[in-house]
Amino acid sequence: METMTDYLNTDDQNLREQLNRAHRDLSVLYDISNAMRTTLELNHILYIILTGVTAHFGLGFNRAILFLVNQKDQCLECKMVIGPESGEDAQKIWRHIGEANEDLEDLISADKIAQHINHQSAYPTIRALKIPIGTQEHNLLATAYIKGTPLHITRDTISQYANDPLLQVFHTNELVIMPLKAKDKINGLIVADNLYTQKPITSEDLKIFTMLANQAGLAIENSQLYEIIVQKSHTDSLTNLWNHGFFQHKLSEELEKAQKANLPLSLAIIDIDNFKRLNDTYGHQNGDIILRELAHVLRKSSRETDYICRYGGEEFSIILPQTNKEQALTIAEQIRQAIAQQEFPNFLPNKNLKVTVSIGLATHSTDAATKENLIAKADKAMYIAKFSGKNMTCASQPETA
Predict the structure, then answer these.
(1) Pick from 319, 318, 270: which is nearest to 291 by CA?
(2) What is the pTM of this model?
(3) Of the candidates 231, 181, 223, 254, the residue with the CA atom closest to the CA atom of residue 44
(4) How many domains, in total, are found in the chain?
(5) Is the pLDDT assigned to residue 222 strictly greater than 70?
(6) Is residue 401 part of a domain?
(7) Per residue in 235-249, pLDDT tens?
(8) Which of 225, 262, 347, 375 is most open to solvent, judged by the fewest CB atoms within 10 Å of its CB?
(9) How many CA atoms lie within 13 A of 100 on its CB side?
(10) Are residues 99 and 146 part of one domain?
(11) Could you tell me the residue range of the domain that residue 45 belongs to?
């Protein structure tokens, strides 16, 4: 028969457990908050957040997905997934972390982040998800976004959502969807589960998760504002293309990547034919309109992986990563033809305006080994195209010993 002393001992034990849990939760929040303050780079922030959600010394969930709101397309886009793809992978990861005795600082080190960002091959169907936020019907993510409150889908209720687009590609038997808030505005969602440990998600888990999500939402907003400022500083105000400073920085960066991975990289220099005459005929303000229209054609005719820059004046440049000379020639010719066929605004009555360009190409490392030589070779090829009749593409010739 239990005595009063037994009851008191039980209460004391429960109190100690609650205090230990509160201390641990505050420590987790403190560590993750400090980590988020170390950077303003968005991918870095997202990685820190999801590491905090999934790490054994963090919230300890098995898997986590982070969606951000795309206001332009009015949808939720998957930006990052962290978590093993199978129970076997989970055991390997947890064993490695245990043996390595890694803490949060180790897990969010620059090399770990770069490794994760550059090898995001896991969960391809989840990464491709784009969920419209205009309707809640059969849509858990949109519901959580619109309501702005956590959704805990339990083992008893999950079968009701078999047609949900998330659950069709993210197979689980219990999950939580946590909104990320910044000043009462939802800027993203985190989905988390415990598929491999089968640990139930408790009300205490939801409390600490909510506190982390509030901090994460503010960190994401600050990062997005920072990236807007950085992008504006790297953007040409007239054409909205990347500017010359960004071009120099990015070409150095991509050239270093190409050299390390032994991959090709091509550079195109594009010059508008007879631009001085166009300015003299139509005026400089209309010349600016031509530059903006041409920038639009360049964006439409290039790949998402290319970097289109305004090199200066009437010259543009395109950095083409992982592109050999043959591929670059094909792309350059598509661009040249698209510009030649473009209907530019007619600034004078009864006068059709046609714009053409001359394009020079150079490829690393067959044509040049350094950034300076690559630019010089592409520039020289562009001038050969111009002096050979204009409205053509000319590729540089390889360096000779």
Answers:
(1) 270
(2) 0.69
(3) 223
(4) 2
(5) yes
(6) no
(7) 999 999 999 999 999
(8) 262
(9) 13
(10) yes
(11) 4-232
